[in-house]
């Protein structure tokens, strides 16, 4: 996750991180990604069932019951495990998490255990009353998926009328005093509406927008059908950077983030080299502290059955089940070759990734994308849009976009 607004526009400084200490104990939540102690943010798919049928769904969810989901008592036990292990953030996802009847009760339980609880939802089940219940449950942030305007979103999500319901959900959350933001996945179906999304964010007073790069998993595993070409991705990232700077220069405080493509970090750095070399050096230090892709390190997943995965996109690979062993024991067990490799992956990387000078701020990007594309976990990530010249130049000042 790249905080484009704060990094690109000069609001976040290394001194701010150092002032709080990098051991994580006293750091504000928004700075935890720069800390030395990295307990994982955990994505928990509380249910696989969903009322929509999205083209890019990594869980390939449908509107039907799924067997063997964690019971309420098992879910509370999981929350206790996560709290005991020191997990800083629990992200409730699905399927559609609000399809599960006790999700907000579990959110309240997790909040009471000291976890920061975040909800990732399609928004269609959030009425004004549900938004107030979300607030009461102690949910600190709600991310509503909105992958285009009007019919573009409806076609992407597979159900007519979804756009209006999702947009209304954002309004309900704002009225209830819940911090809410918009989640937009960049694909060939909606890339032409990125500017429209910025306009919507401005017109509706939405404080946060996250642009997600596509990960080749679930229904998006056939990437040729959904994914953008690297050159197209690069153009969109340029546009996101440009629109973010425009908001900043007009005094509009918006959180703008990009997610799931760690090539964004060196690309932002190269842009700053051209615009503000002094700031570029400061940002590079922050990006080094963040470390790039953290699958299996500072991001993990527990699915609806209790299986633990290195991240939410790696559903086909289980590290163990929380019904049998605690999450902490599973997470720290490096006898699993994939887990050991993810925690120290640089010597294993192949192709372009192996010789890239930006490994300290990218960490090889998404291994799931590489595996989906060529069947090898440590191959180059095909989602990287940096040129061969950019990743091999002797110094960062030699090449700027």
Strand-helix topology:
Elements: E1 2-3, H1 4-8, H2 14-20, E2 41-45, H3 72-85, E3 89-93, H4 103-112, E4 116-121, H5 128-136, E5 139-145, H6 151-157, H7 162-175, E6 180-186, H8 194-204, E7 208-213, H9 223-226, H10 230-249, E8 255-259, H11 264-275, H12 277-290, E9 299-302, E10 307-309, E11 320-321, H13 327-332, H14 337-343, H15 351-354, H16 359-362, H17 367-374, H18 388-392
Parallel strand pairs: 2-3, 2-9, 3-4, 4-5, 5-6, 6-7, 7-8
Antiparallel strand pairs: 1-8, 9-10, 10-11
Helix pairs in contact: 5-7, 11-12
What does this molecule look like?
The protein is an alpha/beta fold and 401 residues long. The chain folds into two domains: 38-261 and 293-335, Alpha-Beta Barrel (TIM Barrel); 344-392, no CATH class. 40% of the residues lie in helices and 13% in strands. The chain is built from 18 helices and eleven strands. It has helices spanning 4-8, 14-20, 72-85, 103-112, 128-136, 151-157, 162-175, 194-204, 223-226, 230-249, 264-275, 277-290, 327-332, 337-343, 351-354, 359-362, 367-374, 388-392, and strands at residues 2-3, 41-45, 89-93, 116-121, 139-145, 180-186, 208-213, 255-259, 299-302, 307-309, 320-321. Strands 1-8-7-6-5-4-3-2-9-10-11 form an eleven-stranded mixed β-sheet. Strand 2, helix 3 (72-85) and strand 3 (89-93) form a beta-alpha-beta unit. The mean pLDDT is 92.
